[in-house]
Specification:
This is Tryptophan 2-monooxygenase. The protein is of the alpha/beta class and 456 residues long. Among the domains are: 30 residues, no CATH class; 175 residues, 3-Layer(bba) Sandwich (FAD/NAD(P)-binding domain), CATH 3.50.50; 67 residues, no CATH class. It is built from 17 helices and 23 strands. It has a seven-stranded mixed β-sheet with strand order 8-7-18-19-20-17-21. Strand 11 and strand 12 form a beta hairpin. Helix 6 packs parallel to helix 8. The protein binds flavin-adenine dinucleotide. The site of flavin-adenine dinucleotide has 41 residues, from helix 3, strand 5, strand 17 and helix 17.
Length: 456
């Protein structure tokens, strides 16, 4: 489908085009939904659902447990001379509303096009430089095969074992595939990975916003939605036995709604932090268990000089943090920032340490790569963001577990209940875009479409 057709189709599906264009007396015009809609969570999914409902003139309120909007999008001012993203940072692909919004807003979109460096032992080299090393080439080949895996279910770790990939390069597929998917090699189901890769349709290029944060972009586009957000309002119970639906918050205060869109992270559902009455259907409970979500830490290290090669894109290490990238590239000429991202088992280990210890150890690891004391001496500021410790997030993002049932399981997770309770959020995306901001937004759109379809 052409991009323009896709947008038109989407607008039609949400009723937006029909509503805008219809004459007042058009007998076929979709009716405006007059009921009260509650959205739980003001992350990308919840805000975009609000944006679409706002266009419909619908009555909605967004309840957000935290003291700020954005969820897993959280920029930090003051650490460097630009806003450092502690959560989502890259716009993944160019075929999404998120990308279009960035374009429309005039933001500078910086393609993440640098050269990647890989550590083996104490040496750091580019792919071209390592290419004479057979083990490196096998690690890269296996990473490629993992993305298109078919056969009996296996984890990435099992695949490395059965193909006898040598230990000194196993961190490479682990970083390129497992960490990228939000977990470690031993926990990632490759059938789910292959399915997600095959259905991914957003394009393969990644972009950083050069001159603004992701949150400021959402704030600009959702400026009419933000007044409808009630902060510090953790919803603890959703009773949809009767109409209206009763929502109870952490202070036992009650709110009422005719329809609810739940956008909280999968981990919040897994932890039973929201009690549903009647309880969720067995199929949905099984789906909640059959998708993974675990520890995730992002570390921002701010230096007073650049000690890495000027062309550096990502640095894949064999240490505690599988991947660093240069967050300051194109954004600053005086703050030099490496962002590190670690999930799964390694994130669990780091999570047991203090920020000071984590930073000291990461600097030591970078010093072994770049020369004694180099990174340590250049550090001016640092921040460790442990998403597993965030009470209303509890992890990084969802990933396919072995034998988890893949996209069908995500579809089951997304199923509305009794035309009253709808589900959005990145984990409910069953078109391959889970674990992303634009995927979260698309899930919000799907939930709004389902809700409006039930009304007409
Ligand atoms: C470190 C990190 C890096 C990432 N990098 C990228 C990237 O570069 N590019 C990309 O596309 N994606 C990235 N992602 C993934 C992306 O951030 C998420 O997929 C997306 O932001 C999820 O949006 P969401 O609306 O589904 O969930 P969330 O953003 O988690 O929003 C859910 C909201 O629900 C709230 N909530 C929870 N419980 C309750 C309750 N009981 N009552 C009321 N509110 C509640 C939460 O506080 C939260 O605000 C990254 C994620 C992490 C953690």
């Amino acid at each position: 489908m052409q991009r323009r057709d896709f947008i038109k189709h989407t607008l039609l599906a949400t009723g937006a085009v029909a509503l805008e264009n219809c004459q007042p007396k058009d007998p076929y015009a979709p009716r405006k939904y007059e009921g009260q809609i509650a959205i739980i969570g003001a992350g990308a999914a919840g805000l975009y659902a609000g944006y679409l409902l706002e266009q419909q003139g619908a009555n909605y309120t967004i309840y957000e447990a935290a003291e700020q909007i954005g969820g897993r999008i959280r920029p930090l001012k003051g650490l460097a001379d630009f806003e450092v993203e502690l959560g989502a940072e890259k716009i993944r692909g160019s075929r999404s509303t998120l990308y279009d919004w960035a374009k429309e807003s005039g933001a500078s979109l910086l393609p993440t096009s640098g050269t990647d460096y890989y550590q083996i032992g104490t040496l750091l080299r580019t792919e071209a430089q390592w290419n004479t090393d057979l083990d490196f080439r096998l690690a890269m080949l296996l990473s490629q095969q993992a993305r298109a895996y078919s056969g009996n279910e296996t984890t990435l770790a099992q695949l490395m074992e059965t193909t006898k990939l040598v230990a000194k390069v196993r961190h490479i597929p682990d970083a390129l595939i497992a960490n990228n998917y939000g977990t470690s090699a031993s926990r990632l189901g490759l059938l789910g990975v292959a399915e997600a890769e095959a259905t991914w349709s957003a394009g393969r290029d990644n972009y950083l916003l050069g001159n603004r944060s992701l949150l400021s972009l959402l704030e600009e586009k959702c400026k009419n939605v933000i007044p409808k957000v009630v902060l510090n309002k953790q919803i603890k119970r959703i009773d949809f036995t009767n109409s209206p639906i009763v929502l109870e918050d952490a202070q036992a205060q009650r709110r009422f709604a005719d329809k609810v869109i739940v956008t909280v992270p999968l981990s919040i559902l897994q932890a039973n932090d929201i009690q549903f009455t009647p309880s969720l259907p067995e199929a949905k409970l099984t789906a909640i268990r059959n998708i993974g979500m675990g520890a995730g830490i992002k570390v921002a290290l701010v230096f007073n000089r650049r000690f890495w090669e000027a062309n550096t894109g990502s640095i894949y290490t064999s240490g505690s943090v599988p991947e660093y990238w240069v967050s300051s590239a194109g954004r600053s000429t005086s703050s030099f920032v490496l962002s590190g991202f670690v999930t799964g088992e390694r994130a669990e280990v780091l999570s047991g340490q203090t920020s000071t210890v984590i930073i000291q150890n990461l600097l030591k690891e970078l010093d072994t790569i770049y020369g004694k004391g180099t990174a340590t001496a250049a550090l001016t500021n640092a921040k460790v963001m442990d998403w597993g410790k965030e009470p209303f997030i509890k992890g990084a993002y969802s990933f396919p577990i072995p034998n988890g049932g893949g996209l069908l399981t995500r579809q089951t997770l997304s199923q509305p209940i009794q035309r009253k309770v709808y589900f959005a959020g990145e984990a409910t995306h069953y078109g391959g875009h889970s674990g992303t901001v634009h995927g979260a937004m698309e899930s919000g759109r799907r939930a709004v479409e389902e809700l409006l379809r039930d009304v007409v």
